[in-house]
UniProtKB/TrEMBL annotation, chain A:
<feature type="domain" description="Myotubularin phosphatase">
    <location>
        <begin position="181"/>
        <end position="556"/>
    </location>
</feature>
<dbReference type="InterPro" id="IPR010569">
    <property type="entry name" value="Myotubularin-like_Pase_dom"/>
</dbReference>
<feature type="region of interest" description="Disordered">
    <location>
        <begin position="590"/>
        <end position="620"/>
    </location>
</feature>
<dbReference type="Pfam" id="PF02893">
    <property type="entry name" value="GRAM"/>
</dbReference>
<feature type="domain" description="Tyrosine specific protein phosphatases">
    <location>
        <begin position="362"/>
        <end position="409"/>
    </location>
</feature>
<feature type="binding site">
    <location>
        <begin position="306"/>
        <end position="309"/>
    </location>
    <ligand>
        <name>substrate</name>
    </ligand>
</feature>
<dbReference type="GO" id="GO:0031901">
    <property type="term" value="C:early endosome membrane"/>
</dbReference>
<dbReference type="InterPro" id="IPR003595">
    <property type="entry name" value="Tyr_Pase_cat"/>
</dbReference>
<dbReference type="GO" id="GO:0046856">
    <property type="term" value="P:phosphatidylinositol dephosphorylation"/>
</dbReference>
Automatic annotation (TrEMBL), chain B:
<dbReference type="Pfam" id="PF06602">
    <property type="entry name" value="Myotub-related"/>
</dbReference>
<feature type="domain" description="Myotubularin phosphatase">
    <location>
        <begin position="206"/>
        <end position="649"/>
    </location>
</feature>
<dbReference type="GO" id="GO:0046856">
    <property type="term" value="P:phosphatidylinositol dephosphorylation"/>
</dbReference>
<dbReference type="InterPro" id="IPR011993">
    <property type="entry name" value="PH-like_dom_sf"/>
</dbReference>
<dbReference type="InterPro" id="IPR030573">
    <property type="entry name" value="MTMR10_PTP"/>
</dbReference>
<dbReference type="GO" id="GO:0005737">
    <property type="term" value="C:cytoplasm"/>
</dbReference>
<protein>
    <submittedName>
        <fullName>Myotubularin-related protein 10</fullName>
    </submittedName>
</protein>
<dbReference type="InterPro" id="IPR010569">
    <property type="entry name" value="Myotubularin-like_Pase_dom"/>
</dbReference>
<feature type="binding site">
    <location>
        <begin position="323"/>
        <end position="324"/>
    </location>
    <ligand>
        <name>substrate</name>
    </ligand>
</feature>
Amino acid sequence: MEESGSVDSVESLCSSTTTRSDRSNGTRVSDTELRSKGRAIQKVYKDPSKAELTLLPEEVIQDSAKDVTYICPFIGPVRGSLSVTNYRLFFRCTDREPVFRLDLPLGVLSRVEKIGAATSRGDVSYGLACKDMRNLRFVHKEPEDSLKKSVFEFLMKFAFPVSNNMSLFAFEYKQVFPENGWRVYDPLAEYKRQGLPNESWRISKVNDHYELCDSYPAALVVPVTITDDELRRVSSFRAKGRIPVLSWIHPESQATVVRASQPMVGQNGRRCKEDEKLLQAIMDANAQSHKMFIFDARPSVNAAANKMKGGGFESEDAYQNAELVFLDIHNIHVMRESLRKLKEVVYPTIEDSHWLSNLESTHWLEHIKLILAGALRIADKVESGKTSVVVHCSDGWDRTPQLTSLALIMLDSHYRTIRGFQILLEKEWLSFGHRFQQRVGHGDKNHTDADRSPIFLQFIDCVWQMTRQFPAAFEFNEYFLITILDHLYSCLFGTFLCNSEQQRLKEEVPKQTVSLWSFVNSQLEEFVNPLYVHFPSHVLFPTVGIRHLQLWVTYYIRWNPRMVPQEPVHQRYKELLAKRAELQKRVEELQREAANRTASSSSERAGSPTRSITPVQTFV
Amino acid sequence: MFSGKQTKPTFKSYLPPLQTDLKKSPQLPIKKLEAKLLPGEIVVNESNFVRKCIGAESCQDDLWGKLVCTNFKVSFIAHNSLAQQRFQCTHRLLGEHDIPLACVEQVVTVNDVKGKQKILGSNQKLKFNPTELILYCKDFRIIRFRFDEAGPESAKKVCLAIAHYSHPADPQLLFGFEYVGKRYHGSTGERVNGVDPGGGLQTPLFDCSSDWDREIKRTGASEWRVCTVNQGYFISPSLPEFFVVPVSLADQDLKQYACCFYSQRIPLWCWNHSSGSALVRMSNISDPQQQRKVEQRISSAITKSHPLRSDVFKSDLDKNLPNIQDIQTALLKLRQICVIDSFEESEEKWLSSLESSRWMEYVRTFLRHAVEVVYMLESRHVSVILLEKEDRDLSCVISCLVQLMCDPHCRSLHGFQGLIQKEWVMAGHRFLDRCNHLKKNDKEESPVFLLFLDCVWQLWNQYPAAFEFTEVYLTVLGDSLWVPVFSTFLFNCPRQRAEHSRDFASSKSIHLGQDQALCFPPVWDWSQQFSLKDQTLFNNPLYVGKIATCVQNGTVKTFTHRRSKKNYSSTLRGLPSALRNGSLGPNDTLSRRNSLVLRLRSDLSQVREQQETPSERFVRDFFSRPVDLQGLLLPQLLPSHLSVWKLYFLRWVPEAQIPQGGPITAFHKLSVLTDEIEMLQNQLRQYQGAAGTPNNLHTEHSKMYFKATSTPHQPPAPPEYLSSSFPFSPVGNLCRPGVLGTPLSKLLNGAKIWLSTETLANETI
């Protein structure tokens, strides 16, 4: 949020990018107490009273300029000083009360542009478009000395290090956290949790060196009846070699969620008997059902059009007992356009009179609905139908992870915990090669790149929608989701860098950078939903009607100063927990006292008034 | 769907075909089906072997039973009971399938064989035998009965009876009269119905001068007095007998001015801000010649009552707010998209249809207007007059909202009830006309009160911990409009109540004993409708657990605003004017066809155009500070921050239900925690108090609906029956054609809409 230096001030490492919507304004003592624990680590970086720029380790100021005017769309022009480091842009105006500041990681910039020529006064204007739903604009005096570079030229350089052959700040940032987040996900441990390998499924090493498929992880779970050789033949039949492999297995029915890319059927209806065998084996591995469902995420028209390019979808002839279902989810370009429209509608100002129809015209919620509806169908087939499903789109790295990971969240309560969710992201998104580098365009100035698309944002939005419908089913809170999105762009952590597991290993990302989970897991209290109740076998079936979907205002509209975090229930709940703990302590003290008294005074026997009371559990 | 096709015996089978659902007529042992009647309630007509539709697609869940029309309700007494979830509370006046006649909006009879359909009014004829009866209810329910097995004549008769009795010709035919009148029959003074005119209630009814006195003291309005000129309703027919006026106005003046005002309504004091600014409501001055003079006199009297002698600000509500017809139109449109249009078809255009209903827009307009008034009171320290032609509709909403925002007392249960009593019931909101109980004049019908409840809900939704009550409470309060036994909602004004009560008593030669008139129970006597246990659903665990210094009703206590006035003045007194006025000028003439430039430029121009008004700054200042829940509360008014009140508007829609989800699951958890805290506090009290007191941990009435479990170390699982509609249930309450009742189709509903390639028929497990 654009901090007006107000009470809540700066938090977290990426500073003010992350709004604490989940928290009210820190007035209450109990709240401050509760939070203080989680703060130790951050403390170093902030001092809200002065609103000074406090640098991260390895962060260096590149240039500063005084007399820069930030044209705030909400409160008008603000004059102050601007600093550019190798990590962030920091703008501060101390003339105002409260102090006005703007603190954002350069990673969120998608383009920086000089607007217009210098005027007679020597003023020049810069526009900054951000990936997190805002645009910034500065006006600045052109330096007298034409040889001297403007601060904005430094900005251009450090905002797009990749385009300038420099490395991302994540590779320089060397903060040490108590926990190493790179250890959060161990594929074998995760498969073991699911009871794999078992008599029907094995873990194949065929992709150990990423030879079968360079965008897939090394460890793949496949039916025992299919040999590695057969897998190799399948890989030539599936787009980008992304063969059908297991994502999740139902602990009771053994129905599985399998992911893949489209089959290379082409116009001539090519077939691959190994692929057919593989799918048959997947079906056979589940004794409960003699049928399986193939969910093609695309609209059927798009799927058919892919035949022209050699792709396509499974024909009913070739895959008997398999039923093909299209989920009508649109491609990355449609989604990008939808978000662009959404940004127009929400930033900077919201038009009062046509808000709802404007929102409708962006189709954003409609897309969210389609994705959730698709995931719901998958989860329903697996849970209620006890049927195995194969999910794919074209390449199997955008819509497919959206669908599988959402279905997994519905099916498996483990993924609704904080660590479980991290594992889910590491597995379904990162190890299976969602092209984060391409979709987000880290450090790349080519903002018109057609490969960019808010696929991951959409997924997080869907998760948020579910947390709204089931407020007690998720261990994490909204702040956790917003933090993830902020660091998706910040390039402070290595987690979302590169396009695949192979690339991350090649670039030594785990060695050279810090994982986002190191940061998160070192201060879990911040991210915990106090209302969370853990029910091991509770399957969530959200209602996907548009009536129950809402725009995630605390994310998309957070820059609007009229958008203030509402008095959150969570906050109250924490206060109540503290209250309970306090009362418990006092009751226990009195109990002990009373017990001592009865014991010491006389052994009068047990008509004691201290009949033990249901000890209430203390969990915070 | 009810195709007459029956499976015929084929030559292969010598057995009769299996009976379909349709044929499964009640061959159960005939249970005696009798409607439960309240005192004064009589059966008008009934029909046996009626089917109540539960699911629209199949009739296997349908219930068989008897349909009864009484002078109070449409009652359905079922043979078998619903297996599925239903309303979780037991209504004391209404059975599970009952609908009060006052809640019936439209009676539609259908003969699907002949393809005929007719909306029935009072005293009408029906030329066909109905096979189906559809009741459209004011609370958004749609209920269907089938008469396939019922006698055609009796079906027709019961339909006509329902139509007739839901259009009472006279207010005294509203059931409340018979019901309350019964109290006086028989032995004198015996409380047959347990009717309590308010003696045992903590809610002030403002029907006596002492309630007003207390309110004056509570708000520190020392320059205001209770005026009794209207005792016996001699001055104004629509004003209460007691109300509050500036001390500087003598009774003589008031009598003199009264005739200038519309319906002789002397301006009414509503409330005083702690700064001494008063909130006053006033009707139009009917005599234009006198207008200026009277206005001046009133204004100067109000000024005199202000400690700072501040000016008076007039807020013209008719000019700034939608009128009652607009509001009615909006609600009808909203109902159309919520419950009448098919769920799927309305799904695609939901947002724009919602917008074009304008309901949300009106909710916002009212809230925004109230904020403007708050700004005048809070920041400008001036008294405000709410000006409305009749002063009986829009001002009720605005004055209540203003007080809810400013005065934490109004956010307690009794404070809120007192507020409604003060600003709606006593001020003479025409509940009888607006509810259109007599269905005489549709033009007068308007859901002003529901709109108000929605505004309150928006505030509640934004600051849930600031209110003592829950959204269930607000919903049930809205529903009580349609239970015509409460003094609160039956009349247009106190005088009408008095007159009708007197007339009714004398026409029935009821001996009233000590009472002056029939005493109707106020809706605030919640035990009329719900058990104590069910009433705990009204208690907000966020508030109850607050141990806040909540101002108790009755006790004289002036509230104070913890936020000192200073806070408002210091910040952001504007931008350096040099910056605003021109030093950036030349940069505006930027030209490049780049879209970014254009967008940025429009950003800039918006900055220029939107000079912040002082009240906007007031709002922004408010939001830049931590909120004190016991102080001033302003709502977020960005259109993106108002939501549809789903519990009220969508509770009957099966597809919109979230099984085992919704805000109720959080409520459940909070409720349990608050209950634990209460238990611990009780324990402490026991230790601290007499050691010998019985160790009764759970005092008989905990305030929480959901209790802490006795098995510790395990957070209690939310009960299976919880859903986003809780404590209501869509089952059997919304039967429009095309509703899919089965759980699976509901689950798949979202996906199905987008599905072109697959037929739903394949959707089997």
